[in-house]
Amino acid sequence: MAQQQAGKKSPKSKKVREGGRGLLLEWDAISPWRQEGSEHIRTGYRFVVDCPVASCHALANFKGSRRETASWEDCLWSWTYLHNETVSIFSHIVGALLFLSLPYHIFSTEIPPRYTVATLADIVVCSIYFGGVAVCFTLSTIFHTFMSHSPTVYARGMQLDFQGILLLMWGSTVPLAHYSFGEPPCRGGGGGGGGNHLHTALSSSSSTAMTMYGLATTILAGLCSLATFHPGIGGPRLGHARAVLFAAFGLGSFLVPVGHGIWTYGWAEESRRVGLPWIGLTVACNGFGVLVYAFKLPEKWFPKVFDLFGASHQIMHVMVVFAALAYSQAVLAAFDYRHSEGSPVGC
């Protein structure tokens, strides 16, 4: 009799299953504030609350009967078992650690080391980029770790996540403007006084363009940041609106200065100045990630199959890391060309 009863599972109890050292819920067993925007991920939700649960039956009847507010410790403990945020959390933990250590590696391992020729401007623009990526990935990790805590923490964490994304995007424009329009110092006297005057004129024009693009992208980033606080853009179900907003900011901040550089210097020279092939790979990685996230693929086509591994948000996280690495190569290519003998100096 006991075996027969044990073999019978109520529809409610099927909403819960054990997962590692935690408990996982299905989508219809979580509270409404956690359901918004995640309807295609059907399983693998963390159950982390500040009150004990006596049984799976009680757990299945949890929604609406107990306060779903997790402790901070429970959220951190979820790092120790598998759930549908595990890939999102650890992909950006790895990314943050990587970009914190990457500058030391790339500036000290070349022969001669890059730091021996780096100017203060090089150090500043590269630090802004690598630091922005590391901060973005750190804020993303914090959000995905504590998003199950409470509705308030979820909303605040989402806003932090948005600001991290915008910081990464803005930080990427800084080396782009610097290496595209910042003229290298005159390194020789091969051109005489006329060459020096020409170099001075080019440097002045390029410096103006660099300053203008720097101000424009900073203002755009600030406006996008403010826009994410608007209910029509910042809500959980408004991923499409945010994707359009961030894509517009990214395209405007990159296509316009790159196009300006191509018009000024020509395709070949601009390609060498900013590492265009690597920027193209960056755009491809980010574009693919944004598309799968916007259309919720593949989980929309295959319910429950990709809940733990391979969901659109996870794919986007991984592609953002790949894109950041590709852009790092673009920055290094620009740095190396700036300090190479083949870089035109106009002198």
UniProtKB/TrEMBL annotation:
InterPro entries: AdipoR/HlyIII-related (IPR004254)
Membrane topology: Multi-pass membrane protein
Domain of life: Eukaryota
Coiled coil regions, renumbered to chain: none
Biological process terms in GO annotation: intracellular zinc ion homeostasis
Presence of the UniProt keyword Protein biosynthesis in the record: no
Protein name per the record: Hemolysin III
Organism the protein comes from: Apiospora kogelbergensis
